[in-house]
Amino acid sequence: MNALRLLWVFARVGAMGELAYRANFWLQLLESFLAMGSTLGVVAVVVSQTDSLHGWQPAELVAVVGVYFAILGTINLVIAPSLSQFMQDVREGTLDFTLTKPEDAQLLVSVSNVHVFKLIDVVFGLAVLALATARLGTEVGPVQALAFASALLLGAAIVYSFWIALATMAFWFIRLENVLMIFWMVYGAGRWPLGIYPDWMRWGLTLLVPVAFAVTVPAEALTGRLDAATLGGAALVASFALAGSRLFWRRGLRQYSGASA
Amino acid sequence: MAAPEPNADAPAIRVRALSKTFDVPVRAAGLRSALTSIVKRKTRAVEAVREVSLEVAAGEIVGFLGPNGAGKTTTLKMLAGLLHPSAGQAHVLGFVPQDRQKAFLRQITLVMGQRNQLLWDIPVEDSFERNRAIYRIAPADYRRTVDELSDLLDLGELLDKPVRNLSLGERMKCEVAAALLHTPRILFLDEPTIGLDVTMQRRIREFVADYNRRTGASVLLTSHYMADVEALCKRVVVIHHGRILYDGALSELVQRFASHKTLNLELEEGDEGAGTDLSRYGEVVSSGAGRASLRIPKAETPATTARLLSELPVKDLTVEDPPIEEVIERVFSAEAE
Questions:
Q1: Do B82 and A261 touch (CB under 8 A)?
Q2: In terms of Cα–Cα distance, which of A161, A10, A242, A160 is closest to B122?
Q3: Among 1.10.760, 3.90.105, 3.30.70, 2.60.40, what is the CATH number of B259-320?
Q4: What ipTM was estimated for this complex?
Q5: Which chain B residue has the Cα nearest residue A103?
Q6: Which of A80, A101, B32, B202 shows its CA 20 to 30 Å from the CA of B256?
Q7: Regarding the domain with residue range B13-20+49-254, which homologous superfamily does it belong to in the CATH classification?
């Protein structure tokens, strides 16, 4: 509850900050439009050559793109800007202000910077997802919808844990801007269902960088491909990831307060 | 965890043999050692704070003096819960700072003159609002505090301006206000007036003094500007190489460490001490146009004054303590010897 309260506070502050530069809204709109357009364009090229890709129908592939954008937007909305801000604060020493606030420090740094315009990606993603689902023609029952929502939530939790763990390394290495790029370099692969990739890559995209959980699993849930075992596995991974990254964060914080001048 | 209930007579801050050692990476110059350090880092232990003990009463303002790297900020950070001490204990309002309990953090504040917590792009008051939400200040209390602060610091026109449009001094006033919205009982001020012009420095100083009077908050202040310390702190703690060299009244510091006094002479016109070699009396700091300043060892001051008055046509003579900066410098050099 407290997390939502703080998220709301920072979202409001973030909105005020961004509205100071209105032109950015239009730029973001254009950027999201182009990104979505080009991604769908590639999908269109592929499906013009084949009816199904590794068992995924055209509309299902579009659904994957929708999930991909919704998650992308969510990361860029709060996780990425907040954690970049955090790493900058470590470098510049302004993290001290955060650490003297009477709130959980991990929570504060995780929501401290909200780029509201990135909601556009989320909205585009969800809209494309809705269109694709309508195209599928199959009824999305309550069980499927629930599975989808859970998979999405679990995916978000796993991605968040991954990010916070990467960012926490700043406590030791101070200068580490590029580490967040690791995620972006790999995340692009999530535009396609993981099944189309060779085995070694699938493993990497599941275990090293959790693209599978973020995009493919929710998409599978929506298209009726997901079995209970996978969902259960995702829940397990999410719990471990959250707990593990929390522990890691604490170690990092301890390191920071032990070593910085 | 239960919040300790501080009793009124207990010192607000109690520090016993507090030490902090950092492992600082070291490497020799050159590419080779730069490459080696990627794989294997050598570190060296640096004792930033050594066995510091002190007590600060509720409502007291204490100035921390010391050259750069003396350990002032490190001490402050340990007391604010930002750094874990390597040894020793600290209690602030009955809390152990590094436990960072919410009840503790709600009662302290930190102002760093060289760093900002206000957000760059949004109006000042929106940054205030963020702090209001984090500290969960009731809207009525918040309104009252903001009104008070903006009266005292003259913030009226600044509140709805984006921070990037403020001057350094204006920004600092807003930083101070933002740090006090939750009416903390302990203020850690690390160089709060650095880089400000004289008027703005005085403004901030007067405000801190006033806040201390009104709320009875304790203030720990580090500053490079002696004027800050002279105006605010009856008590100073002089730190050098991580150790406390002096802890006591500011006036006492001058008494104890000033070895010399300054004699300012004005001689009768027409006789500007021509031919008189003033260096017979003491070290000539300046002379000319019928005036001179001499630096005299403290013990010899009465005798020298008498000699000057009897041997020269003195029109006016004043005896002064040396400027505090000089005294402090002496404290540091005495320790180095």
A1: no
A2: A10
A3: 3.30.70
A4: 0.80
A5: B102
A6: B202
A7: P-loop containing nucleotide triphosphate hydrolases (3.40.50.300)
The domain segmentation of chain A, as residue ranges, is 2-259
Six-digit token string for A249: 């964060």
| Cβ-nearest to B48 among A99, A257, A261 | A261
Closest Cα in chain A to B113? A94
Q: What is the residue-averaged pLDDT of chain B?
A: 86
Cα(A41)–Cα(A35) distance, rounded to whole angstroms?
Answer: 10
Whether B105 sits inside 8 A of A260 (CB atoms) is: no
Mutate to test the interface with B, among A97, A107, A260 (most CBs of B within 10 A): A97
Q: Is residue A188 predicted with pLDDT exceeding 90? A: no
Q: Nearest by CB to B98, which of A10, A16, A257?
A: A257
What is the strand order of the sheet B87-92 is part of?
B42-56, B13-26, B87-92
CB B217 within 8 A of CB B139: no
Show me where the domains of chain B are located: 13-20+49-254, 259-320
Give tens-digit pLDDT for A47-79: 888 888 888 888 889 999 999 999 999 999 999
What pLDDT digit, counting tens, does each position of A68-124 carry?
999 999 999 999 999 999 998 988 888 999 999 999 999 999 998 889 999 999 999
Q: How far apart (Å, rounded) are the C-alpha atoms in residues A210 and A206?
A: 5
Under DSSP, the state recorded for B279 is G
What pLDDT does B89 receive? 93
Q: What is the pLDDT of residue B3?
A: 47
Indicate yes or no: CB of B133 within 8 angstroms of CB of A9. Answer: yes
